[in-house]
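[#protein-structures] MJ: dropping Carbohydrate sulfotransferase here for a structure pass
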Amino acid sequence: YPRRQAPETQLREFNLTEVEAMLRSYTKVLFVRDPFHRLISTFMQGMGSSPSFSSFVQDVLDSGQRNASAPWKPLVSLCQPCFIHYDFVVVFGFFRQELGHLLQRVGLPANSLLLQFTDSHLRWTYSWLSEQMFDELSLQQKQQLSHFYQWDLAAFPLSSSLLSD
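AK: finished. structure tokens for Carbohydrate sulfotransferase:
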């Protein structure tokens, strides 16, 4: 889009007409990850100051959705899928399959640009890790997390999430 383009420019800095023109002119791709996996990743990277995963989750829940940090904020509030029509939604754990399809759809050679993703290994690792860390949580925390991420779970194909139960 030919207007002021700076690395940090956000859509809210443009008027509605400009936003609509930009969104029509771009191919919009949304990368989605299970919110529970996002929490695990954030905790493992040390982005929280809590000593245990359970206390980290409690800190997240206590912060509320309005005050949540971007790494664990619900995607629906970050990406606005009800207002922005994304052309593609790529789910973490299926990158190799979905990115190949995406690249072909936009006219790029799929095989030459794809890295060697190990989706099945990633899915197995996160499945095992999720079960271990999910067991650390109280029933109340599990229910609160499901409520915290209810719109993400409803909006995206995350039926295998432990929070979907």
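MJ: nice. The chain has a mean pLDDT of 82.
AK: one more thing. Residues 74 and 149 are 6 Å apart (CA to CA).
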